[in-house]
């Protein structure tokens, strides 16, 4: 779309450039569990997510100003208060003015060393803008990953940033959330554990209750290694042979054998987002999913037979005016409040919904 001439900072870049940044490869939310699905308005989202009446990138009310982006990797009232996730970066008047003056000087000077020096300085500012744009998009991706994995972890979403507060329950039964198979210390890492038996028991329960088959399991490397090294697991799969005598034995072969035994595809997932308290240098890795659990999902074929609209889950996204009324990610620039300074922001009007989260199962298989 054509751009106005007063966009001083990135007048050569069209709206929506943040949509061109690829999704992080270590995320599974939008790729596997709840991909973006376009809807015409916010009302459609609230039809699927009842109870959103009050209250990574922060949530904001539709008419509220977005939060200023912190460089610390952190993750109103009314209808859109939890749909619009947005944040911005502010560029001081000196940054913008210097960039503009150097750009104009570079265009007018054609001899000497000035163009080379000016080019480096203007390119440095453009690189800063690009880095900030990637970081804003990463924070938005992290927020959606948190929303989706929070749903899988707890059976719903609970959000409270001190200004906006809401809670959504997707209706998974309590006995299917954190089903503890570690009674009496019988963890999957113990010699008395029975990983395959535990998985088969949950598959049987899901079939009895819902007529679906649990065919996918999201696990951490910690869980996978404990299962692969379990004495009972090894005795069942390779007999009395020592591991080092079994040609080609390793995680990939073990995964194939388990899949043959129980018909489950294992998805190893250890993604994190990083936070740091302001004023400190200590970074903390925060996991999206607990490392001591197994998250069991129904087969895609069973879901298609039950629901040919949303499917297992979807992140419903509605149009936004700053994205030229397109869905998904948008970005904006503003200089009207401070005519010399500049704000650049990004966001997305979206929210994940899971009509069939009751068909999932989470198991605690290792000590916390």
Task: Explain the overall architecture.
It is a single chain. The chain starts with 28 loop residues before the first helix and ends with a strand. It has nine helices and 16 strands. It has one domain (1-368): phage-related protein like fold, CATH 3.90.1690. The protein has 368 residues and is α/β, with parallel strands linked by helices. Strand 14 (329-334) and strand 15 form a beta hairpin. Helix content is 33%, strand content 21%. Helix 3 packs across helix 4. The chain has helices at residues 29-33, 42-48, 93-108, 114-154, 195-210, 221-228, 231-238, 251-262, 300-306; strands at 36-38, 59-60, 67-68, 84-91, 156-160, 165-169, 179-180, 214-219, 265-268, 272-276, 283-287, 293-298, 314-317, 329-334, 342-353, 361-364.
Strand content: 15-25%
Q: Could you say how many structural domains there are in total? A: 1
Stretches where pLDDT is under 50 for at least 5 consecutive residues are: 1-15, 51-55, 71-82, 104-122
Look up the CATH topology.
phage-related protein like fold
Specify the structural class.
alpha/beta
Radius of gyration: 25 Å
Main beta sheet: 7 strands, mixed
SSE order, as H and E? Answer: HEHEEEHHEEEHEHHHEEEEHEEEE
- Supply the CATH architecture: Alpha-Beta Complex
